[in-house]
Amino acid sequence: MLLKGKVAVITGAGPGLGRTLSVLMAREGASLVVAARSRDTLEKIATEVSAEVDGEVLPVPTDVTDAAQVKALADATIERFGKVDVLVTAAFPGTHRKNVLDMDDAYLARWRQAVDIAAYGTLLACRHIAPHMLERGGSIVNLTSMSSRMGYGGRSDYAAGKAAVHLLSHALADELGPQGVRVNCVAPGWIASDVLEDWMRTRAAAEGTTYEDILARDTGAMALRRIATEEDVARAVIFLASDQAKATTGATIDVNAGQHFT
């Protein structure tokens, strides 16, 4: 098991990718601390992981933009496990598409909140958890996006937040490398989900065609002719978190099925 004996903290451990990360990292032997704003969501994930894997899972409700709560997350991890080996940051709110010139005051506030969760939330998690890695070394894996390199109309909040995390990770890799702490990114493209399928069906209806035609067109532009799954993304995270990547830092693994080459 790639993470046997390691303690991993996952922020943004909500439904979808966060849950998949939790399950697969636990299968690889990690003890987990899962953090998100919703206690109910975290307890559900902890129950699901514990039912499938004989490992420890500590749910800690956390708003990653609140420094006191993030520090409490770090303290709870050390109190329970005595160490932390891996930090995975995956917190980001769901957003709606809106062009910059169409944003009213309320949406401008949402835009700022989205960037705060991605960028400032990642900064706070690293600031308060990385110090506990300095004696033994460790691995930080930040979830960015294909959009951190190429923005799309209507998604400037997503692109700006993820781009900030991307370059923050470079700076942290330089700062923490001498202490043996590695900092890397995983940048997913589209991830197969009900939300993505609904968006494709909406496009199909608007164009007067079928979902199957839209899917074939979109995947036809991808080198692997398919859309990446949550497990595909989680496996890249696990690799970077593990000792298999012990000489890799300041890097980004793209998981987009060949939708965009870098």
TrEMBL record:
Alphabetic keyword roster: Oxidoreductase
One MF annotation (Gene Ontology) recorded for this entry: oxidoreductase activity
One protein family per Pfam: adh_short_C2
SUPFAM superfamilies named among the record's database cross-references: NAD(P)-binding Rossmann-fold domains (SSF51735)
InterPro entries: NAD(P)-bd_dom_sf, Sc_DH/Rdtase_CS, SDR_fam
PROSITE patterns: ADH_SHORT
Protein family per UniProt: Belongs to the short-chain dehydrogenases/reductases (SDR) family.
Name this polypeptide is given: SDR family oxidoreductase
